[in-house]
């Protein structure tokens, strides 16, 4: 039965209501700590302050996006790509992490044995990875299929105390040379 009055406008019957529920929440964005562009320039990875990673495909005008959830214990300081499908990060926990981009989770972690890690760089041929450590050393890793393996440690400058020097930038160029920047 229709409960509307004879001269009432069309719409819901008297006693019926349309309900629209609105929820408000406080969105707190997390700042970007590091960026890494893949070798072919097709993907961009952004590390957030909460430890999460966002991967954007630049081929699709930035529309295709993958998110790897963060972890409060994971502080990402640097990102490096090996080709288009291998993503590595380093952080203050002293570990190098490679991510599984299909399952969107860490694939493995490897301790660099140099304290907190501040930077890393992959050479042009993608055969070696250099990691700058807070103890003033640079760790060199060989890139092999499905993993990376420790090759050697380049010790800190002679005469520098451990608490005074740490590596904040490393670059591996096409020639077998390594350049690094330190802070005293």
Your description of this structure?
The protein has 184 residues and is mainly β. The chain has strands at residues 32-37, 43-48, 53-57, 65-68, 76-82, 86-91, 95-100, 105-111, 117-122, 128-133, 138-144, 147-154, 166-172, 178-183. The strands form four sheets. It has a four-stranded antiparallel beta sheet with strand order 1-2-3-4, with no helix packed on it. It has a four-stranded antiparallel beta sheet with strand order 5-6-7-8, with no helix packed on it. Strand 5 (76-82) and strand 6 (86-91) form a beta hairpin. It is elongated and about 95 Å long. The termini are far apart. The relative contact order is 0.11. The mean pLDDT is 81.
List the helices and strands and how they pair.
Layout: E1 32-37, E2 43-48, E3 53-57, E4 65-68, E5 76-82, E6 86-91, E7 95-100, E8 105-111, E9 117-122, E10 128-133, E11 138-144, E12 147-154, E13 166-172, E14 178-183
Antiparallel strand pairs: 1-2, 2-3, 3-4, 5-6, 6-7, 7-8, 9-10, 10-11, 11-12, 13-14
């Amino acid at each position: 039965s229709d409960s509307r009055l004879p001269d009432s406008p069309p719409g819901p019957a008297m006693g019926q209501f349309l309900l629209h529920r609105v929820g408000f929440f406080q969105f707190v964005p997390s700042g970007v700590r590091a960026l890494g562009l893949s070798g072919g320039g097709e993907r961009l990875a952004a590390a957030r302050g909460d430890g999460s990673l966002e991967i954007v495909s630049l081929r699709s005008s930035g529309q295709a996006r993958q998110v790897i959830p963060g972890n409060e214990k994971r502080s990402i300081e640097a990102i490096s790509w090996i080709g288009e499908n291998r993503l590595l990060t380093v952080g203050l926990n002293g570990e190098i992490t490679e991510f599984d981009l299909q399952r969107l989770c860490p694939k493995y972690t490897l301790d660099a044995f140099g304290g907190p890690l501040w930077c890393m760089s992959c050479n042009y041929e993608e055969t070696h990875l250099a990691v700058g450590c807070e103890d003033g050393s640079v760790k060199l890793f060989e890139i092999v299929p499905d993993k990376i393996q420790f090759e050697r440690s380049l010790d800190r400058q002679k005469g520098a105390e451990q608490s005074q020097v740490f590596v904040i930038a490393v670059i591996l160029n096409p020639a077998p040379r390594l350049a690094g920047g330190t802070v005293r």
